[in-house]
């Protein structure tokens, strides 16, 4: 195995027999390497089997306790009026808002209708707001999603497209996984392969730390069914104002 072109077997060892790198401990390097590569290990969001055995109130209580300890370790004065409520606020935000998409109980119920208009062209919902969190550094991913499908006999309420995007976004994420999860969900609900999802987002783990690049954004796409055809794909890109 190599790290930045260097064989791990050639690295010197520390007193515990672990490989060292001139820049620090190997474990830290491997952790940083995965985080900077924005690598994902699975299509499904990694969750333990007992992830939902605790109710929301208990999760909030426990997160509040642990976040209070983090603030203490950082040296913050939790007797200050501005800070003393922060552990509770953060805990509620994590469970009820930021990571509410982890809980399948919050999954939006699809509202489908018969395609009585006989509309057989693509439907595009563009510029859907994406607020997610990078699972490597737990900082925001902010951007837009464009969702398109061609009806196979059913149509979905427009607001449900937004809610499906938001549901999968409200969890620690990798953008590639988020794109695929949204596309697969729509294919299943709409009973058609003719689905496309494009996400254009900025990662604060890139813009506010590390390389501190505030200009770049990341674009991911999932094309299925008729959207794998070049002409159909170009039509979609024209609709959302993106050139080839």
What does this structure look like?
By secondary structure, the chain is an alpha+beta fold. It has seven helices and eleven strands. The strands form four sheets. It has a five-stranded mixed beta sheet with strand order 9-6-7-10-11. A two-stranded antiparallel ribbon has the order 1-2. The protein has a two-stranded antiparallel ribbon with strand order 3-4. Strand 1 and strand 2 form a beta hairpin. Helix 2 (56-73) packs across helix 3 (86-98) and helix 4 (158-169) packs antiparallel against helix 5. The mean pLDDT is 88.
Question: What layout of secondary structure does this protein have?
Answer:
Elements (H helix, E strand, L loop, with lengths): L1 E2 L2 E2 L12 E2 L2 E2 H12 L18 H18 L12 H13 L13 E3 L7 E13 L5 E11 L3 E3 L1 H12 L2 E2 L1 H16 L4 E9 H4 L10 E6 L6 H10 L5
Parallel strand pairs: 6-9
Antiparallel strand pairs: 1-2, 3-4, 5-8, 6-7, 7-10, 10-11
Helix pairs in contact: 2-3, 4-5
Hey, roughly how much beta strand do the residues contain?
Answer: 15-25%
Strand order in the largest sheet: 9-6-7-10-11
User: What portion of residues is helical?
Assistant: 25-40%
Number of helices: 7
Low-confidence sequence ranges: none
Instruction: Calculate the mean pLDDT score and round it.
Output: 88
Biggest sheet statistics: 5 strands, mixed
Query: Alpha-carbon distance between the termini?
Result: 37 Å
Q: Using the CA coordinates, give the radius of gyration.
A: 22 Å
In quaternary terms, these chains amount to single chain
Order of helices and strands: EEEEHHHEEEEHEHEHEH
Classify the secondary structure makeup into a structural class. alpha+beta
β-strand number:
11
Large-scale geometry: globular
């Amino acid at each position: 195995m190599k790290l930045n072109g260097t064989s791990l077997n050639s690295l010197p060892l520390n007193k515990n027999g672990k490989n060292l790198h001139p820049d620090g401990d190997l474990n830290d390097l491997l952790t940083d390497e995965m985080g900077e590569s924005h690598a994902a290990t699975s299509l499904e969001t990694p969750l333990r089997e007992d992830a939902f055995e605790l109710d929301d109130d208990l999760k909030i209580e426990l997160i509040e306790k642990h976040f209070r300890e983090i603030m203490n370790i950082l040296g913050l004065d939790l007797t200050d009026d501005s800070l003393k409520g922060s552990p509770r606020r953060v805990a509620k935000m994590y469970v009820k808002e930021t990571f509410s998409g982890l809980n399948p109980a919050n999954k939006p119920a699809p509202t489908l209708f018969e395609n009585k208009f006989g509309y057989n062209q693509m439907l595009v919902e563009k510029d859907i707001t994406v607020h997610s969190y990078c699972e490597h550094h737990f900082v925001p991913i902010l951007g837009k999603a464009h969702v398109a499908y061609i009806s196979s006999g059913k149509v979905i309420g427009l607001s449900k497209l937004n809610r499906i995007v938001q549901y999968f976004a409200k969890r620690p994420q990798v953008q590639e996984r988020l794109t695929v999860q949204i596309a697969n969900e729509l294919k299943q609900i709409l009973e058609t392969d003719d689905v496309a999802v494009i996400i254009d987002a900025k990662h604060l783990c890139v813009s506010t730390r590390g390389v501190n690049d505030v200009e770049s954004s990341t674009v991911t796409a999932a094309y299925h069914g008729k959207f794998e055809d070049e002409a159909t794909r170009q039509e979609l890109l024209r609709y959302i104002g993106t050139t080839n």
